[in-house]
Amino acid sequence: MDLKGFENEISVDAPWGKITGLTWGDESLPPVLAVHGKLDVCTGFRPLISLLPRKFRYVGIDLPGNGRSDPLPKGLRYTVMDLVPTIEVIRKHFGWHRFIYMGHSLGTLIGKYFNIAFPGYITRVIELDPIPAHLNWEISREGLANWYHAYYSSYDASRYQKFYAGDETVPRYSYKKAQEMIMKTRHMTKEASEHILERCL
């Protein structure tokens, strides 16, 4: 599928700022929400969307703090639970009573918890490189304790400064260097890296 003239930018108001993303297809078609994985962006779905049928409308979002979306308020943890409300904001914005959910990696886990918290909206699920829900939050006293310490104890004083010190403290890379690093660490092709970096730099 040629996506030229078929792709549109969106910006959705959330209580903490803007959620940005892209749409592919007419808004009258059944919706498919595409949610990316950790440290990723909605354009990562573009090559896949180009292969899918046009009988659906695909909506890809940048999760908070990723791509062109605003971050969550300073001090909030980026746990799976903190990202679930993003899906509900998008659902309400478009007025969806039913939609198909497509998630990649972390995005699959967010979808699982959304479906538990807000049952009945997701009609079908497409999982790419899924993370099983039980690996994130084991339902036992020990499991909950481990989950809490894994997600919250890491925010000690030094790490808090790393996460929230501001743009002036982050490393600076040229586009070429950033592309080389992402291709190496994520085993990506040059074309795939260009889709990702388009919204990251």
Structure, described:
- With 201 residues, this protein is of the alpha/beta class.
- The chain has a domain at 1-137: Rossmann fold, CATH 3.40.50.1820.
- It has 8 helices and 6 strands, in the order E-E-E-H-E-H-E-H-E-H-H-H-H-H.
- The chain has a 6-stranded mixed sheet with strand order 1-2-4-3-5-6, covered by helices on one side.
- The longest helix is centred in the middle third of the chain and has 15 residues, at 80-94.
- It is globular.
- The model has no long low-confidence stretch (mean pLDDT 89).
Structural class of the secondary elements?
Answer: alpha/beta
Per CATH, the class of the domain at 1-137 reads Alpha Beta
Low-pLDDT segments, ≥5 res: none
Overall average residue pLDDT = 89
Give the terminus-to-terminus CA distance: 27 Å
Give Rg in angstroms.
Answer: 17 Å
Secondary-structure element order, N to C: EEEHEHEHEHHHHH
Looking at CATH, which topology of the domain at 1-137 would you report? Rossmann fold
Q: Helical stretch count?
A: 8
Spatial strand arrangement across the major sheet: 1-2-4-3-5-6
Helix content: 25-40%
Sheet of most strands: 6 strands, mixed
- Please count the beta strands (DSSP E, at least 2 residues each): 6
